[in-house]
């Protein structure tokens, strides 16, 4: 007998055998009323810097906001999206996508904004 799978693929980030590692953790809270925290990993060798872009898109694929656009050293990072677009206007309730591009790697997560609700 061998190993069939590892992890539970649950919300906490388990993975099945052969599944590529995720660069984006699930945002917290999700759904969110006002702001949400996004944790991400920049892969690579510890001695170099990697070009990183983290963007929020709406359901139509339109870029709402760019949260990160710079070179970073490999490691774990956290950013908070305040629910505003690039013009500073509050985005409406709905489904959004967070896309991370880090060097040659990329990842996408779904975010749900529900204004006027509590995350408790």
TrEMBL record:
It comes from candidate division TA06 bacterium DG_24. Residues 1-30 are annotated as: Disordered. NCBIfam families: Por_Secre_tail (TIGR04183). This is FlgD/Vpr Ig-like domain-containing protein. Residues 52-103 form the FlgD/Vpr Ig-like domain.
